[in-house]
Amino acid sequence: MNSWYTVKVKFTKEFQDGTLKRVTEPYLVNSISFTDAEARIYQEVGEFTRGEFLVTSISKTEFADIFHYSDAEVWYKCKVSYITEDGDSGKEKKVNNNFLVSAHSVKEAYERIEESLKGMMVTFEIPMISVTPIVEIYPYDGSATDDDASQYQEEAAVAASVSVQPEEEEEEEIKSPNINVAFNASEEEE
């Protein structure tokens, strides 16, 4: 199951006026694990960054859905609340979900999230909309070929066999009930 991860990357950015400045920018990556998110960000950011860059943090981020409109590059986090009824106890429960939508303004983000969710069967409200610092979103890329997957599996199997073999040898020696250790100091060590 894929999850969204916010990955912060520190690098030297060249601005339009030609100045260079060290910045930390957050990116949103859809991947299967923290390790996968880090590997994907190295691949994606490495394509447009000159010089060194550093992943400073990775955190799991919960979004119910993401609505991308190609005419806007600013991302707004929208908190959507609605009330459901628990089937077992019959009690009402307030549910909050976070959505991400691209828009030019808070008003447009509100209109777009309202339009996107108009098919919901429950009445909802949008108590909060805030602009996010997210620079780019990288959705899950399932286009890896079978050759890439088999190569990855082979490398993982080799790495696993290399790391497991020494441990097994040590365990066999330790399991012996009679362990005798003898040390002969040579004349050179005295």
The CATH first-level class of the domain at 63-132 comes to Alpha Beta
- Give a count of the beta strands, DSSP E runs of length 2 or more: 8
Helix content: 25-40%
Low-confidence stretches: 145-190
The Cα radius of gyration reads 26 Å
Overall geometry comes to globular
- Helix tally equals 3
The name of the CATH topology of the domain at 63-132 is: Ubiquitin-like (UB roll)
The SS-based structural class is alpha/beta
Strand ordering within the main sheet: 3-1-2-8
The residue-averaged pLDDT reads 79
How far apart the termini lie comes to 62 Å
Characterize the largest beta sheet: strand count, sense, and whether it forms a barrel. Answer: 4 strands, mixed
Order of helices and strands: EEHEEEEHEEH
List the helices and strands and how they pair.
Elements: E1 3-14, E2 20-31, H1 34-48, E3 53-61, E4 65-67, E5 74-85, E6 92-103, H2 106-116, E7 124-131, E8 136-138, H3 146-174
Task: Give the structure's gist in a few sentences.
The protein has helices spanning 34-48, 106-116, 146-174; strands at residues 3-14, 20-31, 53-61, 65-67, 74-85, 92-103, 124-131, 136-138. By secondary structure, it is α/β, with parallel strands linked by helices. The chain has a domain at 63-132: Ubiquitin-like (UB roll) (Roll), CATH 3.10.20.
Q: Would you write up a description of this structure?
A:
- With 190 residues, the chain is of the alpha/beta class.
- It has a domain at 63-132: Ubiquitin-like (UB roll).
- It has three helices and eight strands, in the order ββαββββαββα.
- It has helices at 34-48, 106-116, 146-174; strands spanning 3-14, 20-31, 53-61, 65-67, 74-85, 92-103, 124-131, 136-138.
- The chain has a four-stranded mixed beta sheet with strand order 3-1-2-8, covered by helices on one side. A four-stranded mixed beta sheet has the order 4-6-5-7, covered by helices on one side.
- A hairpin with a 6-residue loop joins strand 5 and strand 6.
- It is globular.
- Mean pLDDT is 79; it is low at 145-190.
